[in-house]
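Let us work through a complete example step by step.
Step 1: write down the sequence.
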Amino acid sequence: MDIGFIIKKTITYFVEPMGFVLFLFLLGLYFLFFNKNKFAKIFLSLSFGFLVLFSYHPFSNWLVENLENRYDKYSYDHNITYIHVLGSGHNTDKSQPLSSQLGDVSVKRVLEGVIIHKNTPNSKLIFTGYEGNTDTPTAKMNAKLAFALGVKKEDVIIGPLPKDTHEEAEFSMSIVGNEKFVLVTSATHMSRSMMLFESMGLNPVAAPTYFTKSDEYDFFKLPSIGNLERSKMAIHEYLGILWAKIRG
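Step 2: predict the structure and record it as tokens.
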């Protein structure tokens, strides 16, 4: 695997919620070990405080809502040929059914893509995504689900090499050029994806799916792993948007 890609993923981990909290906690332990109790108390308290904040429903909901409200659900008033479904996680455990081998995000993206395809005459689905730590690319796994849902093989284009959104945009460009097409991805990921695709001269029409926001802010709800995961998704996207703007 490309060393630059590994370095990027490692740095990203430590600036996202779980890695950031772990970093503060380890700093606290370091100062505690060397009897610098003042600094130890500061960093251990910060690690606990940020863990609670990232896991708190109103905060995580606010983070994702600011991203997911930017694009409405897809409307079928476009004369479009291509529908690009971005990749997400999967496993290749043969003891599991296909629906479980794909992550929740992947299933939602594929379903949305297939629904749009079924309602768009003469359209074609584009699936992208590399193999990750498995022996099968995400693109092929997503295509398998589409075939199981009745999509014809001649209506599917598979891009098994792209490792990130930028490479997925490059693959899309090689097929659609400047033609308008549907872009299917998670609602939290849509803002960064649209910005990236448009910056490369492409003309995507947003079709967000896998919404995680809540209509209500429950201030009395206890911190939870689910809220921590929402914060992670949102901050990952904010960092990606910031990095894209820095790179121009």
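Step 3: interpret the result. The first strand starts at residue 82 and ends at 85.
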